[in-house]
Specification:
This protein is of the alpha/beta class. 33% of the residues lie in helices and 22% in strands. The chain has ten helices and 19 strands. It is elongated, with a radius of gyration of 28 Å.
Length: 378
């Protein structure tokens, strides 16, 4: 092998492709490269050596191009079709990476009827329309959108492998994970029937529609405290419904809620159903059926915010995560514990969970991926 490397190095020096040979050695592709190289005889004339060197240059050029093109089906695959994934697609496409976006839908944003806090839309924008606009923008620059569910991801090999529901295998040099997070639900009647018709999961996103009204928040952790405090600033009345007798939230957050004059707390109380005023399919939420150890009651509300947490959609990705399943990323970066894998949006953000912050990290992920690919010659 030592002699092989010496001879290959000599040929590469003549051909001017030292870097390609070094890359081949590092990636255990010496034999593949060696097959394309002709070592001139020692007694060959200068003209013959030059001729051999020129042929080697041509052969190494083809081998190098084949390696970089055929190594993976795609330079970048983006998993997720929400603001994070689609914004990553816009930036990756503009970097001429021809990204493939794999997603079944537009993520949590499609569960919101209207978005009023996304910059550039002074009169608000329909949530589905916003997703479609970013998708069209990504396609205009060369991104491809594939609507399917992912059944598996293999990050142990290079290139990475992504498996789709139809047993299709797609390989990629880099991967952007933007699969989002799923809100946890109570699982009671009417919850999904009134989704976006009074039942929501994000007060920052949808609370403004119920300003000066009566809003209920369901939960007892930090998320519930944050949503109750936010709504208390804009709503006439806020009722916090909690199934226990103590909060799980931090002491600071709990104290702020307990002292707030505009927040009523119902302890040891569960929601049994979300109700409307009639049987019309277009009806909106109007009341909660509540139960505690002593009695049942009906609470009239304009909106209810289910704030019992989120579950990040990260089960398929074998990267470093915290105890709640959120992906760790390097400080000031979207790089995960696996080189070449980047995370954006709610899969790595348990705090903000906004369309605009997801879009921002999507842009970061695409930029990080493009730089990483350049550094690794892909």
């Amino acid at each position: 092998m030592r002699l092989l490397l010496i001879l290959l190095g000599a040929a590469a020096a003549q051909a001017g492709f030292v870097e390609e040979v070094i890359e081949a050695v590092e990636k255990d592709r010496v034999e593949e490269y060696f097959e394309t190289v002709v070592i001139p005889a020692r007694e060959a004339s200068l003209e013959e050596q030059i001729s051999v060197g020129e042929r080697n240059a041509s052969a190494l050029t083809c081998a190098s191009e084949d390696f970089r093109v055929l190594e993976a089906d795609r330079k970048v695959v983006i998993v997720g079709g929400g603001p994070a994934g689609l914004t990553a697609a816009v930036y990756a496409a503009r970097a001429d990476l021809e990204p493939l976006v794999i997603a079944r839908d537009g993520g949590q944003l499609e569960a919101t009827s209207r978005v009023d806090n996304f910059p550039g839309f002074d009169e608000g924008v329909d949530a589905v329309d916003l997703v479609n606009r970013i998708e069209r923008q990504a396609k205009r620059f060369g991104a491809t959108i594939k609507a399917c569910d992912i059944t598996g991801v293999d990050l142990r090999c290079r290139p990475f492998r992504v498996y789709c529901e139809n047993e299709e295998e797609i390989t990629s040099s880099a991967l952007v994970v933007a699969a989002g997070a799923s809100p946890r639900w109570l699982g009671v009647p009417g919850e999904h029937k009134f989704l976006s018709k009074g039942v929501h999961t994000c007060a920052t996103c949808d609370g403004y529609f119920y300003r000066n009204g009566h809003a209920a928040v369901i939960g007892g952790g930090d998320t519930a405290m944050e949503q109750a405090l936010f709504l208390a600033r804009i709503c006439e009345r806020v009722t916090l419904v909690h199934r226990g007798d103590t909060f799980r939230a931090s002491k600071t957050m709990a104290t702020r809620v307990l002292k707030h004059p505009n927040i009523l707390i119902l302890w040891n109380t569960v929601v049994e159903a979300f109700k409307g005023d009639d049987d019309d399919d277009d009806q909106k939420l109007s009341a909660l059926e509540l139960r505690n150890d002593q009695s049942r009651t009906v609470l009239r509300v304009d909106a209810a915010f289910v704030a019992i947490g989120h579950t990040p959609n990260t089960g398929l990705f074998d990267v470093r995560k915290n105890l709640e399943g959120y992906i760790y990323t390097a400080p000031g970066s979207t790089l995960t514990s696996v080189p070449g894998v980047f995370a954006a949006g709610d899969v790595q953000d348990p705090v903000y969970r906004q369309a605009i912050t997801s879009a921002g990290t999507g842009a970061m992920a695409a930029i990080d991926a493009e730089r990483w690919l350049c550094e690794h010659g892909c």
